[in-house]
Design goal:
Helices cover 10% and strands 50% of the residues. By secondary structure, the chain is mainly beta. It has one domain. It is globular.
Length: 153
C-alpha cells in the first residue's frame, strides 16, 4: 500500500514536471526576446485575450505582451489580422513609461497558423511596426516580428 502511494506520488510529480511551457519568441529591433505565456487565450463577451510576460534583467521590471483577437468572426487557422481589424489589439508594455501599440499609419499583421478551439492550442506569427502610445516625450516606432503559442481556455 505504501509502495503504491509512493509510485502514485512520483507519477503525479513527473506529470507536473513535464508541463508544457508556451512562449512568444520575437525580435524587437535587433534584440531577441523570449516571453513566457503567463495566461493563454481566455474568452470574454467580445474577444479572446492572451498575456505573455518576461523580465529582461534582474530588478529591471517586467514587460508584457497582450494579444486580443475579436470573437466575431471566430478565430480560425489561417485567419489574418491587421492593424485596422476591428477589435484586434497587440500591445507591448515597455520599461519605464512606454507602451507600444498598433497604429493605423503603420503596417502590422498577425496570422493564426493554428486555432484548436476551447481546450486546444493557438499558434501564429506576427510582424510589423508598433508606436509608443504612452505619454512619454518621444513617440518611438519599433519593428517587431516573431511567433507565439498559447493554450485556449
Amino acid at each position: 500500500m505504501v509502495r503504491r502511494a509512493m509510485l502514485t506520488a512520483l507519477l503525479v510529480a513527473a506529470g507536473c514536471a513535464t508541463r508544457k511551457e508556451y512562449h512568444a519568441l520575437f525580435s524587437e529591433g535587433q534584440t531577441q526576446r523570449d516571453m513566457l505565456t503567463a495566461r493563454g487565450f481566455e474568452p470574454d463577451d467580445s474577444a479572446y485575450q492572451a498575456l505573455c510576460q518576461y523580465t529582461p534583467e534582474v530588478g529591471s521590471g517586467e514587460r508584457t505582451l497582450l494579444v486580443r483577437l475579436p470573437r466575431s468572426p471566430d478565430p480560425e487557422s489561417g485567419r489574418a489580422y491587421a492593424q485596422n481589424t476591428p477589435g484586434f489589439r497587440f500591445t507591448l508594455d515597455g520599461l519605464e513609461c512606454s507602451r507600444f501599440a498598433l497604429d493605423s499609419a503603420f503596417g502590422f499583421s498577425l496570422v493564426l497558423t493554428r486555432w484548436g478551439g476551447h481546450g486546444g492550442l493557438a499558434a501564429g506569427t506576427f510582424s510589423g511596426r508598433l508606436v509608443d502610445s504612452s505619454s512619454c516625450p518621444l513617440h518611438e516606432v519599433i519593428s517587431i516580428g516573431g511567433s507565439f503559442d498559447a493554450p485556449i481556455q
